Here is the input.
Amino acid sequence: MEQPIIVHYRNTIDEFIAAQTLNRQWIRKRNMPKNVFVIIILVVTFSYFIFSSWAQMSKTDIDRFLFTLIPVVIFIIGIILTINLLTKKVWKDTFEKYPVKNKEVEYLISSDGIQSKNPLSSFEMLWDNIITVLHGRTGFLLFTHPQITHWIPNHGFENEDAISSFVTIAKSKVKKYYKV
Here is the structure.
């Protein structure tokens, strides 16, 4: 019988935020073509309406337009920053309600499947139940459902060889393996 790959870590707020960040990066990467398309359409439409009448505008009209544009840009930047701050606050509030917060978590990984243990529960899952694996800079997200993930941080592995072994098994067992 093969030796399982052991992953051991404490489920802290930093781990929770790392997992959420990887998931967010994946969503952004997946939606990037749609977002770029929408931005291009908006810029082209905006440019058409502005520059089609630009030649007919006086210097005062142009100055008034540019003067009005600055607060709009500042407002949009403010909205983006507020959304980022609110997102992190929601993540922290969610973590506070998380039953296994600050608890030790252990994964035993083999070519047959994955066992997970923490003070509140333990379970086994076969590789067939994992629909997607995301490989991020700081760890892995395993999706058993589009909304259910399991976080496995790089620092929880014993060494780099264990990470490489996990990557090899995951790539061979899961159809959707993505490096984000």
Q: What stands out?
A: Residues 13-52 form the longest helix (40 residues). The chain has a mean pLDDT of 87. The longest strand covers residues 139-145. The chain has two domains: 5-11+100-179, 13-96.
